[in-house]
Amino acid sequence: MTLQVKSLDNVGAEVFGFDINEPISDEMRQELKALWYEYAILLFRGQDITPGKQIEFSRIFGPLELHPLKTTTSEEYPELFILENGGDKDKHQTAFYHGKEIVGKLDWHMDLHYTGKPNHGALLRALVVAEQDGLTGFGDLEKAYNALDDGTRAQIAGIEVAYQFNMQRRKMRFVDVEGYEPGPDLPKSPADMGFPDFPDAIYPCVVEHPVTGRKILEIVEQFLDRVIEPEQVGMSEAQADELLRRLVAHTRKPEFHYIHRWEEGDMVLWDNWRVMHCTTGTKPGVKRLINRTTIEGAVVLGRQLQEAS
Ligand SMILES: [Fe+2]
């Protein structure tokens, strides 16, 4: 078996030319892992795969993590997290965007970013797909960093940014809330979800990838709140906000994005230390089923504010 690779739109790559159910040699494991670090977003199509096989395949990329939302994991396969839409629980994910009711729309984010210890990656496999909508976007923040001009790189080299966890989208300072109305059953506080009150997570604006050492623009709009002590780097708070607005606008440029339209059997693996993701959501009542496995993030990339001395 030899792996073949084809670049996706803008970022990421499709990998084909192998059968996931055939034994995967050590050499091929190394090759897959190298491709993951090179492209950060890997698409595999049409693989006929059991949950057990998904777990086994995911382990190629590192030890797996159990998702904190335990209620939705599979009892038989604790490493598997089941994302399901089209049932009773949809009301807790429903909101209005310019008057349209949408289930499960999520802004650009990195998983567990608000804890300071994001997981390393995740693999999604689509079992039931929405005919319309239900897209997942991936944004490469290494590419976004590389596209910054020298002046901006110098400006952000020494700064730190704070992320403030909040269940309420309207309270997030850098997401686009124009035309947004929360649905009546959306959780309002972390306690509604059984979450603790997370302290703010502080990241350098530029993070070095723990494996590749390459630079990542650590700016994701969800939960982004402020620059830490901007006056120490010669900025007023207003200037710091303006800088963050400019950086968020930069990360939203389509040239850093791959938007995946799901087909049944698709698997997408991404590097959550480098890539942000978002979802468009669906209309109410649309069935969608995705099996997710998560690669553990053993590295702390941000610190929690309460630990600061
Ligand atoms: Fe996510």
State the strand order across the main sheet: 1-2-3-17-8-19-4
Question: How far do the termini sit from each other?
Answer: 54 Å
Which ligands does the model contain, each kind named once? fe (ii) ion
Strand content: 25-35%
Q: How many separate structural domains?
A: 1
Low-confidence stretches: none
- Would you tell me the overall average pLDDT? 93
Query: What does the overall shape look like?
Result: globular
Q: Which H/E pattern describes the elements?
A: EEHEHEEEEEEHHEEEEEEHEEEEE
**How many helix segments?**
5
Helix content: 10-25%
Classified by CATH, the class is: Alpha Beta
CATH superfamily: Clavaminate synthase-like
For the sheet with most strands, the description reads: 7 strands, mixed
Q: The CATH topology is what?
A: Double-stranded beta-helix
CATH architectural arrangement:
4-Layer Sandwich
Instruction: Give the C-alpha Rg.
Output: 19 Å
* Number of E strands: 20
Which structural class best describes the helix and strand composition? alpha+beta
Verbal overview:
With 309 residues, the chain is an alpha+beta fold. The chain has one domain: 4-Layer Sandwich (Double-stranded beta-helix). Helix content is 16%, strand content 28%. The chain contains five helices and 20 strands. It has helices at 26-39, 51-58, 141-146, 150-156, 237-251, and strands at 4-7, 13-16, 41-44, 81-85, 94-97, 100-103, 106-109, 121-128, 136-140, 160-163, 180-182, 201-204, 206-208, 215-217, 224-227, 257-260, 267-271, 275-279, 288-295, 303-304. The strands form five sheets. Strands 1-2-3-17-8-19-4 form a seven-stranded mixed beta sheet, with helices on one face. A four-stranded antiparallel beta sheet has the order 7-18-9-16. The longest helix is centred in the last third of the chain and has 15 residues, at 237-251. It is globular and about 60 Å long. The model has no long low-confidence stretch (mean pLDDT 93).
